[in-house]
Structure formats: C-alpha cells, structure tokens
Amino acid sequence: MMRSLSESFSRSHLIRRLGGLVFLVLCLHGVMLHYLLTLPSTYTMSSTQPRPLLTVSLLPKQVTQTTPRPHRPPVLAPQKPQRLATPATPPIPPSPTVTPDILHTPTVSDTHISIHNSVANDIDTTADIASPTPIDPSHAAIFTPEPEPTFAPPPSARSTYISTVNGLRNQDGNILWTTEGLHYQLSIEIPLPFFGPFRYESTGEIDTYGLAPIRYAESRGKHAAITTQFHRDAEQTIHFSRTPTTLPLKPGTQDRFSVLWQLVALVRAMPTRYTEGVTQHFSVADTDQVEDWAIQAQAEEDVALPQGHIIARHFLRLPRRADDARKLEVWLAKDLGWIPVKIRQTEPNGNVIELIFKSSTPL
Question: 349: Cβ–Cβ under 8 A, 6 or more apart, which residues?
Fold first, then answer.
C-alpha cells in the first residue's frame, strides 16, 4: 500500500511538474506571440522617424546623382575666361616679357627712312604703331613709288693721277670735276714730254638722261683746240670745228670725255646691274662724227695704287668697227665711290697711255 501510495504520489508529482512545464511553455509562446503581434506596429511608428543612415546606405547613387553638393561646384574649362571677361575683375597686366618686343619695334624715324625709298615723304608711318586705326585707303591711294635712281654723279673733287707712257712715268695729271646738280665741268690735263700737255674739257648741263654736254674741246701741245658744239635748243644739232657737217643731236649723246663720267654716274646708281658681261651702249660725238660706243663690264681685278692695292671693276670699250685699233679701258673702285682708279688708252701705233689714281681733294 505504501508502495502504491508512493507510486501514486510520484505519478501525481510528475504530472504536476509536467503541467508546470507545459504552462511555462505556453507562457513563453504567449510572450513570443505577443511580441510578434506588437512588432509591426512598433516598426511602423518608428519608420515615420527620419532615418538618414538608412537612406544614405541604401541610396548612395541616387543622392549623388540627383542632389549635387552645393559646396562642390563643377569645374569647367570656360569658367576661367568668363571670370576674366566680367567687368568686376580687373584686367590682367601685360607680361614683362612682352614689353621688350614692343620697345624693339622699329622707331618712327627708322620706318620713315625705309618708307621714303618707295613712297612720298608725307606718309604718316606712326599710324600702325601708335593706333590700331587703319590708314584711310582714299588717302593712301595718292602715294606712288619713287622711281629707282639711275644716275648718281660723284661729288665735286680735284683728283691727281700718275701718268705713264709705255710704262715710263711722266708728270702727274689732274682731273677736275665740279657740279652743283644742274651743270657740270670736267677737265683733264696730261703733261707729255716732247708733245706738250694734252688737254680735254667738257662742259654742259645735267638732265633726265644724265650728263648733257654743250661744248667739248681738246688740244694737243701747241695745236689749236678742236671743238664739238651741242645745240640743245630747238635746233637739236651737233656742229664740229673740223668739218662743216651738222648731225642731229639724240637725247643722251656724250662727248669723248664725258662718257667716262656718265658711266661712273650709272654704276654709282646701280652697281649691281653692271656685272661681268653686261654691255652699256652710248651715243658719243667725236671730233667729226657720232659713234656708238659699247662699253662692257669685265671681271673685278686687283689694281696697284701708290697707297696699296684695291679691287676695281674693269670696263672695256668694244671695237667700234672692224678696223678699230684704238682701245680704251677704265677701272672703277667701289671703295672710292666708283671713281676711275685707272684709265688706259692703247693707240693704233701701240703706245699705251695710263692714268693711275694718286689722291683726291673734295671741292
């Protein structure tokens, strides 16, 4: 009985414990169910509150694309020139390296020098330098280039030359050249033993063709002078003292002496034109006729002078006709203003008369 009571008590105690356990489980389930039922409402209420961390973490790209940050403006290339163009921004001063280029621009005086060689003297060359305003085309149209100079006579001077005949030195000869721009006088005297002095003189004017002789005279020793007259008035004729023949006077006609200084003036004006092989033709009145002289430029040569050697351009008169046995040569030196530094004439009998430059005195 005791045993049965004990067993009965044990069973009843076990049942109570199992019942308490079941009750505890049911309570836990009730608590869980209550929590689950109340969780949505709590989430809903809390969802109404701002959640910056959730928004940033879930939509980082949307925030970056749709809402640019105000403190980070986009950097664009055109922004810099736009800021420079605004009136509020002061202009940027010129760089110091630009100033020397402007200062080394040709000066007004230098520009005038270059302009005067091609246009009239009253051009305002400061317009392009000091002001961007262009020159009025109607005003610029009146300017015409100046013609290239073709004749430049040497300045007045008295020159002394050593005279030789067949290599033998005689007394010095003198050449006198004077001009004031409108008239000229040219004379030479060469003392020769046994013959007396040879004198040649040419006087005349200067016109658009260069030297314009009016009278030419030559005398040898004690013989009377032989003359050639150039009538440059309405008559336009040439008269000779040796013959009654009268010939027409062509523009630019020279005499036997002036032709050399006409050549000098041409070479002085255009030295680059008279290179080796170039031939210049002249109409030359002799003592009884008018001839065509063809003077040809030869190569440059070294000429010995009393002061030393000098480079001179050699000119040779070509034969005037098939039987022409008289030869004429002249050497012009650039370093002495293209005046003759040597004159040589070879006579038909073989005699050689030379004049070699010694000195010169300006007048």
Answer: none
SS (H, E, C) 152-200: CCCCCEEEEEEEEECCEECCCEEEEEEECCCEEEEEEEECCCCCCCEEE
pLDDT digits (tens, 9 = 90+) for 154-166: 999 999 999 998 9
Q: Which residue type occupies 214?
A: I
- Residues 193 and 204: beta-carbon distance below 8 Å: no
User: 227-263 burial, b if ≥16 CB within 10 A, otherwise e?
Assistant: bbbbebeeeeebbbeeeeeeeebeeebbbbbbbbbbb
For residue 218, the SS3 value is strand
Give the pLDDT confidence of 313-353 residue by residue, as tens digits.
Answer: 999 999 999 999 999 999 999 999 999 999 999 999 999 99
Q: Count of residues for the chain?
A: 363
Sorted by sequence, the CB contacts under 8 Å of residue 193 that are 6+ apart come out as 165, 170
**Cβ atoms within 10 Å, residue 320:** 15
User: Which residue type, as a one-letter code, is found at position 11?
Assistant: R
**Proportion of the chain above pLDDT 90, given as a percent:** 53
Tokens representing 333 are: 């030196």
Look-up of token digits 């280039």: 145
User: For residue 350, what are the CA distances in angstroms to 193, 260, 327?
Assistant: 17, 22, 10
pLDDT at 145: 54
